[in-house]
Design the sequence.
């Protein structure tokens, strides 16, 4: 199994205000799958994504990618793990504001021994003509495409997407989802996407529904819908 | 209802207590030092000014070749419209330690004495001596001083009101309270000292006080003519040029201006730091500001809110600083003067000016700089705040960097350009800090260089200035002439120029004897920027006769303003009365009666400036050094910290992307390192150049010449101190980068 999540628990706060956000999550994801984590606010889906991404640690249980367990890793090893395996896309894009579009993508490329061609990728993303602009000169969709470019340029094993369309309009959201599906197909990256948009589950290979820190449904989607055809 | 935003203010201070505390303490340090300085300086200046009347300080003094009889004195008093007071002194070398002690008799009317401790002399063998001279030689009440075979007992320590700075001669470059001291004895005691070195010195007071300095000058110029009509003058020093009386007052007044400039520049830099900090906070709180503005808060209300923290910090620091200034620092700051000047007693007085200088003006500087920054930021619309759309240049295209430059280098360059105001303030702060640091560092080597240079370039070991021609068997001795003239520059103080007449086959001074013109000392050339062929016009000290010479060449003599000419040329130019025969000699002349020798000039005389400066300023230089380092560290740390805080989200994101702490520090800390180290490398030579100009201006108002010299090693040392201090700062910055939370990028900022 490519990605293995075993008995992961996570709590925040102490004493009476202690809140158990993840209550023993078990999940397995195959390489190249698109896995959509669905759930209402507070269900624990973003916390789970952060634990997979190595930017948060579980109280118990472990994450394993290709047999490498994150629980055994110190801070340096976790950094190496993120560098080697992960690409991250956020709702807020989190581009570096004082670097231009191309440089933001190059920041991702720098981390890889065999990055994708930056100019080629910018052309694929439709950003080549904007490459000298700063992020705040672009629309939300263009910024998110840049964030995707930064995430995939290092050719990561897993693309973690936290509400990637949360800040975008309907049309742009569909463009971004299409792009993520294309990346998955073209580069074989495993995609883990957190969303509260139920319609997105239709483009996934695996749909995981969380509520109150527990997986309620974990189903394989046999009949995927193309991102372009999604409606909500 | 009270503005609920007020409740945020203590919380804001508490939430960033480290930074606030650093800024507060630095303000306290500067303000308390300045306050103590102003209060002690002003109290001392007031006491000093009052001393003129309280101790009846003279309007001038003159020395006659021989004692004047009653009629002569009456004629002088009548013609000059002055009252003349006998103020004879005898000057003797002390045995046991190397110094000259100038002894006066009782001073009942003119230049009265302020007893500081012990008693005034009551017996023939008792003497009250100057406090600083006593301290330098560890003398106290009951100590014995041996001079010319006599043993005197110190009865007390005193300040002679006409010797607030212990200048032995009016022409001396600097006072010297180590090798020169003054004291008073009873009249009987004074008479019992040998008359070998008796000086017929008279002090005068004008019948009607001069209205101003101009008037004093006119009166003095007339008086010298009046006296000369009746007696042979050997010395003439009006009060307004008598450094022993006026130097301390001028110096203290000048220092006040310097301290003010230093205080305001430092406050200005700190105000920029707080303004940049507030600007950063406003960017972070853009959403809140947008909401408040949209809800009806006015720009004025928010302006007052964001002004509150920096102004509260400054006000608290000003209160604490002034309290510490009056109670603690005043004593330390007064020491800076009391260790240099023989001042009469003083009392600490409340000083409104000091309060204005250290509280009102800094408050105004802080207010203006912060208000301009905050008001500028608040000029954005509520919607722009809500959209975090707070850059005026955003719609312009980003400037391009060559893509052949590695991405990490471009990243660093972008950080530098993004944070230009911070870096410019770092460069300005670094310059000021380095200026202070350099001031602390260069002093000692400069003085040492001066001493070495004087020792290496002495004409000979001793110059004996004779009262009249006398013969010696000493083979080392070589005859010459010396006369003193004065410069005639309009814009500078007139100063003494020593004119030497040198024999053709001189073994001591090697100048060309054929042709026209004169040689001038390198000190003369350097001080007044003279070139070969320039004409110099000099005048007689106590007369109007002028002499013009053409500069033929320069003679390497770095400490004295001097002219060298041929022996015969001098004999032809100056008549017998206005030239003194001298002996240049490497060996002491022992076969000429002391009575025949007017003065002996040795290495000690030429190096008294550097020795006195070292005594007066040596310990203060360490303070400058430490202050420079503290200032450098604080400025760089606070501004670099802001850069990291401003980029916390980007730093967090790069961490998430998989960048290591080392790589991120390589981006965000090394950009600061690059700017800081470059600013150290550039501002130290700049500080050196400016210090050279500052020193030149300062020393223009002194007699003689004091070359500015900084060995290259000192520049290297200053740079090394800067780099090592920055290394400590960079460790803190690296820790700061390390502590940026990964979750920072996950925060919802919309």
Sequence:
């Amino acid at each position: 199994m490519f990605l293995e999540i075993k008995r992961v628990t996570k709590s925040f706060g102490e004493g009476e205000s202690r809140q158990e956000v993840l209550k023993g999550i078990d999940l397995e994801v195959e390489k190249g799958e698109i896995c959509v984590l669905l759930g209402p606010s507070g269900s624990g889906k973003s916390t789970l994504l952060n634990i997979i991404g190595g930017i948060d640690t579980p109280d118990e249980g472990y994450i394993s990618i290709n047999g490498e367990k994150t629980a055994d890793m110190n801070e340096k090893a976790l950094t190496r793990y993120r560098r080697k395996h992960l690409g991250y896309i956020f709702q807020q894009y989190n581009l570096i504001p004082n670097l231009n579009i191309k440089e933001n993508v190059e920041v991702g490329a720098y981390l890889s021994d065999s990055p994708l061609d930056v100019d080629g990728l910018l052309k694929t993303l439709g950003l080549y003509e904007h490459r000298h602009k700063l992020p705040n000169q672009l629309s939300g969709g263009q910024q998110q495409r840049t964030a995707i470019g930064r995430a995939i340029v290092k050719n990561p094993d897993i693309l973690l997407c936290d509400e990637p369309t949360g800040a975008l309009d309907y049309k742009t959201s569909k463009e971004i989802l299409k792009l993520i599906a294309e990346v998955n197909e073209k580069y074989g990256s495993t995609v883990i996407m957190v969303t509260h948009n139920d319609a997105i589950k239709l483009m996934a290979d695996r749909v995981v529904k969380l509520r109150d820190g527990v997986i309620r449904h974990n189903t394989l989607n046999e009949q995927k819908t193309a991102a372009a055809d999604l409606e909500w | 209802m009270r503005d609920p935003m007020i409740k945020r203010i203590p919380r804001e201070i508490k939430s960033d207590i480290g930074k606030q505390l650093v800024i507060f303490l630095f303000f306290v340090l500067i303000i308390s030092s300045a306050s103590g300085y102003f209060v002690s300086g002003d109290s001392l200046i007031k006491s000093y000014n009052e001393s003129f009347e309280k101790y009846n300080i003279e309007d001038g003094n003159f020395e006659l070749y021989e004692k004047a009889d009653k009629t002569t004195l009456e004629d002088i008093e009548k013609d000059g419209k002055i009252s003349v007071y006998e103020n004879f002194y005898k000057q003797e070398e002390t045995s046991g330690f190397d110094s000259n002690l100038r002894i006066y008799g009782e001073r009942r009317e003119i230049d009265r004495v302020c007893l500081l401790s012990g008693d005034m002399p009551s017996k023939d063998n008792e003497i009250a001596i100057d406090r600083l001279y006593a301290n330098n030689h560890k003398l106290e009440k009951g100590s014995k001083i041996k001079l010319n075979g006599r043993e005197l007992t110190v009865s007390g320590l005193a300040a002679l009101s006409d010797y607030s700075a212990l200048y032995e001669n009016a022409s001396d470059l600097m006072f010297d309270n180590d090798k020169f001291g003054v004291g008073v004895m009873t009249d009987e005691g004074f008479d019992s000292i040998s008359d070998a070195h008796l000086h017929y010195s008279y002090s005068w007071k004008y019948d009607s006080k001069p209205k101003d300095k101009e008037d004093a000058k006119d009166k003095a110029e007339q008086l010298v003519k009046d006296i000369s009509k009746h007696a042979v003058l050997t010395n003439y020093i009006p009060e307004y040029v008598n450094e022993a009386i006026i130097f301390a007052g001028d110096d203290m007044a000048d220092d006040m201006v310097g301290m003010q400039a230093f205080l305001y520049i430092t406050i200005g830099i700190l105000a920029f730091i707080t303004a940049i900090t507030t600007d950063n906070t406003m960017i972070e709180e853009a959403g809140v500001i947008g909401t408040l503005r949209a809800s009806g808060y006015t720009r004025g209300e928010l302006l007052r809110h964001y002004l509150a923290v920096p102004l509260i910090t400054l006000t608290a620091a000003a209160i604490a600083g002034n309290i510490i200034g009056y109670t603690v620092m005043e004593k330390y700051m007064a020491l800076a003067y009391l260790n240099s000047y023989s001042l009469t007693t003083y009392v600490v007085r409340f000083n409104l000016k000091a309060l204005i200088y250290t509280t009102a003006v800094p408050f105004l500087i802080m207010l203006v700089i912060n208000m301009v920054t905050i008001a500028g930021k608040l000029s954005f619309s509520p919607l722009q705040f809500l959209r975090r759309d707070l850059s005026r240049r955003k719609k312009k295209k980003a400037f391009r960097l060559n893509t052949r430059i590695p991405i990490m280098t471009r990243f660093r360059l972008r950080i530098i350009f993004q944070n230009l105001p911070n870096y410019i303030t770092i460069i300005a702060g670094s310059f000021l800090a380095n200026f202070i640091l350099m001031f602390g560092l260069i002093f000692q080597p400069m003085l040492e260089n001066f001493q070495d240079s004087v020792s290496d370039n002495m004409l000979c070991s001793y110059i004996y200035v004779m009262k009249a021609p006398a013969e010696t068997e000493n083979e080392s001795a070589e005859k010459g002439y010396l006369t003193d003239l004065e410069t005639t520059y309009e814009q500078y103080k007139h100063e003494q120029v020593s004119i030497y007449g040198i024999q053709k086959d001189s073994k001591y001074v090697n100048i060309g004897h054929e042709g026209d013109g004169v040689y001038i000392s390198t000190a003369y050339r350097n001080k007044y920027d003279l070139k070969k062929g320039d004409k110099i016009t000099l005048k007689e000290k106590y007369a109007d006769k002028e002499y013009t010479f053409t500069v033929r060449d320069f003679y390497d003599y770095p400490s004295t303003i001097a002219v060298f000419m041929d022996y015969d040329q001098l004999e032809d130019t100056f008549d017998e009365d206005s030239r003194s025969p001298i002996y240049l000699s490497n060996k002491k002349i022992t076969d000429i009666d002391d009575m025949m020798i007017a003065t002996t000039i040795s290495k000690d005389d030429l190096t008294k400036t550097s020795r006195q400066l070292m005594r007066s300023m040596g310990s203060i230089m360490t303070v400058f050094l430490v202050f420079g380092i503290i200032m450098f560290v604080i400025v760089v740390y606070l501004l670099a910290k802001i850069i990291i805080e401003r980029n916390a989200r980007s730093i967090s994101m790069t961490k998430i992307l998989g960048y290591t702490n080392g790589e991120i520090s390589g981006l965000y800390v090394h950009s600061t390192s690059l700017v800081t180290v470059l600013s150290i490398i550039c501002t130290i030579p700049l500080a050196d150049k400016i210090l050279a100009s500052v020193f030149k201006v300062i020393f223009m108002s002194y007699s003689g010449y004091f070359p500015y010299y900084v060995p290259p090693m000192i520049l290297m040392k200053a740079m090394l101190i800067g780099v090592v201090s920055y290394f400590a700062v960079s460790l803190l910055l690296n820790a700061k980068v390390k502590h940026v939370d990964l979750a920072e990028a996950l925060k919802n900022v919309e």
Notes: The domain at 31-56+84-229 of chain A is CATH 3.40.50.300 (Rossmann fold). The first helix of chain A runs from residue 45 to 52.
